[in-house]
Amino acid sequence: MGYPEVLAEPGSKVLMLGNVAVARACLEYGVGLASGYPGTPSSEVVEALAYAASKLGYPYVEWSVNEKVAFEVAYGAAISGVPSVVSMKHVGLNVAADPFFSSAYTGVEASLLVISADDPGMWSSQNEQDNRWYGVHAYIPVVEPAGAQEAREAALEALRLSGEVRHPVLLRLVTRVSHTRAPVTVGALGRPRLRGVFKSIPSRWNLIPAHARRLREELLERWRRIEDLVSRSELNVAEGPRDSQVVVIGVGVGYRYAREALRRLKAQVRLVKVTTPVPLPSKFVLGEVEGRDSVLVVEEGDPVFETMIKTLLQEVGLNTRVYGKRSGHLRATGELRLEDVEGAIAQVLGLGYRRPELLEATVKPPPRPPVLCPGCPYRSVFYAVRRAVKRLGLDVVYSGDIGCYSLAVNKPFNAQDTLIEMGGSVGLANGMSHVLGGRVVIATIGDSTFYHAGIPGLINAVYNKAPMMVLVLDNGVTAMTGHQPHPGSGFNAMGGEARRIPVEDVARGVGVDSVYVAEAFNPRDVEAKALSALRDVGEGKISVVIARGPCILMAMSRARAESIPRPSYVVDSSRCRGCMVCYKAFNCPAITPSGDGKITINKTLCTGCGVCERICPFNAIKPASYIDERWWNLLGLTTSSVGGG
Predict the structure, then answer these.
(1) Could you give the CA distance from residue 321 to residue 295 in angstroms, rounded to a whole number?
(2) Which residue from 138, 377, 411, 448 puts its CA 20 to 30 A from 56's CA?
(3) Residue 29 and residue 481: Cα distance in Å, rounded?
(4) Band of pLDDT at residue 309, cut at 50, 70 and 90
(5) Do the Cβ atoms of 166 and 108 come closer than 8 Å?
(6) What is the mean pLDDT of the chain?
């Protein structure tokens, strides 16, 4: 995907995602290296930088194998004097936490910007983690822009702060900043430093206890300096009457909600915008709060700032009342909502407030649970694996993972009994296989997730003899987050050729003897390989089945680019017996009942994968016209595997 706006002319005002505005700030500062692991809502930062690099020839940009490695890549460049940035979603910082904490002890030689895109409301995540706590815990300052317009300025300030104090800085974004488009006025591109010099200082870069104890003292001294700097930051501002006895503090995007709520309430109170919440800008905050009766803190996520300001006021002996999430004035879960902020301000001010009444729809729309795309190779795989399990009469536990395939938790597949975190499928399966007796464990994991966090669990299974079947769904990209590459893709972040590292080679390399590769769009092949693999598990072995087939969206994109016609299918009603295998068991969204007990195919939704033809027991589904053999090649199918019945 292209991001030409990231290279807009200096001084121009262009419409940008918040993430792209951050990428532009990195280019303006002169970042020399960028790394990351894709994850919504963070992915566009690295994508935009990769686009810029493909046009400019700089900076160096990579998608790393996971967030820990991505952090270490940027950290290694920053301690060598090259300004660097690393980007990830909030849960990714859990993976990178070890070097993140250590980087605060050693500091850096050039700017190191760590971008965490948090996901309040869990629109695409398994938890609602507020990574400002990481800043508090690790002694790493946090900068938090109020919106997409300010993302550029905040990122630039964070890079400057990091370079000035030679200390990593965390830029905390949230979904409504990352994925909001707004007009952004851009500056001139900076001159990047692409080559660095590493100065060997064992007492600084070697965190053995003797050195770490001293570095801890230096860290605390540096932290006091950082607190003084953020207290004077121009990113923190105040507006409204100075004699107001109530102060509303909007932290990050909370400022936008607070400002709009005050406008709607027509309330004249002091409004403070805080963009550097960690460390607490104590001098600035005390200057605004001292002498006031009460303070309302509006912040996205946990009551991080509210907790810190309460501690500060107690330390200096002020009796100012502090309200927010801890006091129950704002709810503690989900994203901020304007009506909630309005209600909280009205309550603190003692105003009468009636929440807006929501209009009730007279007709309720039918439920639309998320489903696998029509033509998704995973549908064919789950259909075939379930058949294999049924044929063998096995009692199976499906240990699931993070990815598009997580949707197999739904009917009719019911093939995700657990879904915890990246790589958790294989890890949990290790424990289950040792304690569940006669039950067979199938760990399902995607190709990108396998490289990210599945390999250690697989090694552990081999080492500790944990019998299981590991099903690797290999579609060649990190599909769920936007088709970014990984070590099995054969291309890198900038679209250049890269060495492909096949999953099967890794599995055999770590000691798995039973490794099978199946054509994902060929249910017969998947079923046969799954049967063999499950029999191996019955003999106490670890088996790996790689079901390989491209994401159908990528296949269709390539077909368009190469002028390969996409096939369509029709139903021969004289042959259709209304068995509903294609509709209920295979569950393709493009197939629906026709009203006469038979089925019909929606040509608009059909992607031409042809699996329905191959699973129909009555040969009632046929291609509407001749199919170009190149289409089958795109799907990874051999000529012998294509056909009905």
Answers:
(1) 6
(2) 448
(3) 27
(4) very high
(5) yes
(6) 93
How do beta strands 60-63 and 33-36 pair? parallel
* Structure tokens, 626: 């001749």
Q: Tens digit of pLDDT for each residue in 76-129? A: 999 999 999 999 999 999 999 999 999 999 999 999 999 999 998 888 888 899
What is the C-alpha to C-alpha distance for residues 398 and 77, in angstroms, rounded to an integer? 41
Tokens representing 484? 């970014």
Q: Is 409 exposed, middle or buried (0-12, 13-18, 19+ CB in 10 A)?
A: middle
Whether this prediction's pTM lies above 0.85 is answered by yes
Secondary structure element (H or E) that encloses residue 441, with its range: strand 440-446
What is the architecture, at CATH level 2, of domain 377-549? 3-Layer(aba) Sandwich (3.40)
Residue 644 has pLDDT above 60, yes or no: no
Whole-angstrom Cα distance, residue 332 to residue 300? Answer: 9
| Element holding 116 (H helix, E strand) | strand 112-118
Correct CATH for 237-349 of 3.40.190.10, 3.40.30.10, 3.40.50.720, 3.40.50.920: 3.40.50.920
Which pLDDT value is given to residue 641?
65
Query: Edge to edge, what strands does the sheet with 270-274 contain?
Result: 237-239, 270-274, 246-251, 294-299, 321-323
**In terms of pLDDT, which residue wins out, 365 or 279?**
279
The secondary structure of the chain in percent helix, strand, coil, rounded to multiples of 5, reads 40, 15, 45
- What is the pLDDT at residue 478? 87
DSSP string, 543-589: EEEEEE---HHHHHHHHHHTTPPPP-EEE-TTT-----IIIIIS--T
pLDDT digits (tens, 9 = 90+) for 506-526: 999 999 999 999 999 999 999
Fold: same for 237-349 and 377-549 = yes
CA 479, 480, 482: angle at the middle one, nearest 5? Answer: 65
CATH code for the domain defined by 4-231: 3.40.50.970
Domain ranges in the chain? 4-231, 237-349, 377-549, 557-641
326 within 8 A of 307, measured Cβ to Cβ: yes
Pick the CATH number of 557-641 from 2.60.120.10, 3.40.50.1100, 3.30.70.20, 3.40.50.10190: 3.30.70.20
Give the pLDDT of residue 640: 63
- Secondary structure (3-state) at 642: coil
- Count other C-beta atoms under 10 Å from residue 547's C-beta: 30
Residues 6 or more apart whose CB falls under 8 angstroms from that of 206 comprise: none
